[in-house]
Automatic annotation (TrEMBL):
Keywords: RNA-binding. It comes from Tetraselmis chuii. Residues 147-156 have a biased composition (Acidic residues). Pfam families: RRM_1. SUPFAM superfamilies: RNA-binding domain, RBD. GO terms for molecular function: RNA binding. This is RRM domain-containing protein.
Length: 156
């Protein structure tokens, strides 16, 4: 079996105690997931999101431990382990994100940055208008020297 090095703090890890568990078989429920992870420490919460249209779970769940060392031990032992004939993927869970915001995902509601968006749109419109207007007192643009030669050659 392949071992996994677990880094509790640093880039790409979640120092919290919530784990993502992917690759769940259809019959796995919260009680089964709790029983599979309780040997590694005290489990605070187990959540298996449901697909509302089908009424079944979506193939993944979340297990939250009280102690972060217990979560690290669970990742080390359960990542690539087998449960009901399926190989599990166990990692630190990413923080909850909401669709929207500047980069497509955000920790805030979509409408929370509407004022800054409106301000940016107004600034962009103002810049476009300034670029369209000729400057007062500005001299007309100089002709291209090649065009001047062509015109003088065409006059002869």
């Amino acid at each position: 079996m392949q071992t996994t090095l677990v880094e509790v703090a640093g880039k790409g890890s979640n120092p919290k105690t919530t784990l993502y568990v992917g690759g769940l078989e259809e019959t796995v429920n919260e009680a089964t997931l709790h029983a599979a992870f309780v040997p590694f420490g005290e489990v605070k919460d187990v959540n298996v999101p449901l697909d509302h249209s089908a009424g079944t779970h979506r193939g993944f769940g979340f297990v939250e431990f009280i102690d972060k060392d217990d979560a690290a031990a669970a990742i080390d032992n359960m990542h690539n382990a087998e449960l009901f004939g399926r190989v599990l993927r166990v990692n630190y869970a990413q923080p909850m994100k909401i669709k929207g915001g500047e980069k497509g995902w955000s920790h805030q509601a979509v409408w929370a940055d509407s004022d800054s968006w409106l301000d940016r749109q107004a600034q962009e419109a103002e810049i476009k208008e300034m670029l369209k207007e000729p400057k007062k007192g500005a001299q007309p643009a100089a002709k291209n020297p090649m065009e001047e030669l062509e015109e003088s050659g065409a006059a002869q």
